[in-house]
Design goal:
The chain is an alpha+beta fold and 349 residues long. Helices cover 42% and strands 14% of the residues.
Length: 349
């Protein structure tokens, strides 16, 4: 039987992806950008963001020179915003500490913010033709199923086994094609749900397929259900403007603009009026409580109650955070979390 690697390489040449916008290049900047964007995000979602990003910031120097607010603006809606913060910090490190050139080894790349072992390997392989193994989510799933590896793949012992296997399977030749193949097979065939085992070039000796355990492996994470958080989003409107507040540089939506939050147990007119007066010195004239919006994150579920509030008076911000009123075209240009962007039209009936 042909080897694991040779079957993957042959499959990639026939059926793998060859025309994604970050392929067919040795530009480490573009490869790095795509790898960061693809972390926990599907290819179909990433393509449009990647193309807009490279148009605005065509080089690592352009990205490093840009204000963080511009980076977050283009990242808005892609989620996992810590990636954007790391992206900006790493670009500045490459320009300031590396002479504007990416390190060309996996070990050196791993010293940069937000670049882990697998991402560093992908950059080293595709940009510099280095020999390195990747182990992203798709590859973890593929190896766990094919070799019948038990246990949650994020556990240190299981992860160690998978890394050793990933290193052992590296072919002596055609490493770039092989690396693309293990990612593509996991993304297109060996998917998390509804895998296309009948089209898989590895099914003849796949342990999970042979034992009828494809939907059991890899072993899911055990643990508590995502934490639930309930709060209100205050959509404060004044003379065709809406109030947005800059969020802190930590926690969810770090560094983005958002409608202010309110922990209002009694959503009464008086309670809301007191809060708005205390925080911003504004007078509440009308308030409409909207249906709850649910937004799921990795480790928590947000239950947000939007409150459309018409206010008057001069803004006197007493929150310690930057806050100001925006017209709709201005607000749309801000870096906004996806739920806030969806709610924005409600502020301008």
């Amino acid at each position: 039987m042909p080897s694991f690697a040779s079957r993957l390489i042959a499959w990639q040449r026939r059926q793998g992806r060859h025309h994604l916008p970050w392929q067919n290049t040795r530009d480490a900047y573009r490869i790095w950008l795509s790898e960061i964007m693809l972390q926990q995000t599907q290819v179909t979602t990433v393509i449009a963001y990647y193309e807009r990003f490279t148009q605005r910031f065509p080089t690592v120097q352009a990205l490093a020179a840009a204000p963080l607010s511009s980076v977050l603006e283009l990242w808005s809606g892609l989620g996992y915003y810590r990636r954007a913060h790391h992206l900006h910090t790493t670009a500045q490190s490459i320009v300031n500490d590396c002479g504007g050139a990416f390190p060309d080894t996996q070990e050196q790349l791993m010293t940069l913010p937000g670049i882990g072992r697998s991402t560093a390997a992908a950059i080293a392989v595709f940009a510099f033709d280095r020999r390195a193994a990747i182990l992203d989510g798709n590859v973890r799933r593929l190896l766990a199923r094919h070799y019948g590896i038990e246990g949650f793949t994020g556990l240190p012992a299981v992860e160690k086994t998978l890394w050793a296997l990933a290193e052992k399977l590296l072919p002596k030749q055609h490493l770039e094609t092989y690396t693309q193949a293990v990612m593509d097979l996991g993304a297109q065939i060996c998917t998390r749900s509804k895998p296309l085992c009948g089209q898989c070039p590895l099914r003849s000796d796949c342990v999970a397929y042979g034992q009828g355990r494809v939907h059991e492996l890899p072993t899911p994470r055990s643990g508590k259900a995502p934490m639930r958080r309930d709060f209100c989003l205050l959509i404060l409107r004044r003379n065709r403007h809406v109030l947005l507040e800059a969020r802190a540089d930590r926690g969810i939506w770090s560094g983005l603009w958002s409608f202010p939050e309110g922990e209002i147990r009694k959503k009464s007119h008086d309670a809301l009026a007191a809060l708005i007066r205390e925080r911003w010195g504004l007078t509440l004239t009308e308030a409409i409580v909207q249906p709850v919006m649910v937004h799921k994150l990795t480790h928590r579920t947000l239950h947000m109650t939007p409150i459309l509030a018409t206010v008057s008076g001069r803004l006197r911000n007493m929150t310690g955070r930057e806050a100001r009123f925006f017209l709709l075209p201005e607000a749309r240009q801000c870096a906004l979390p996806a739920p806030v962007r969806r709610l924005l039209p409600q502020a301008f009936p």
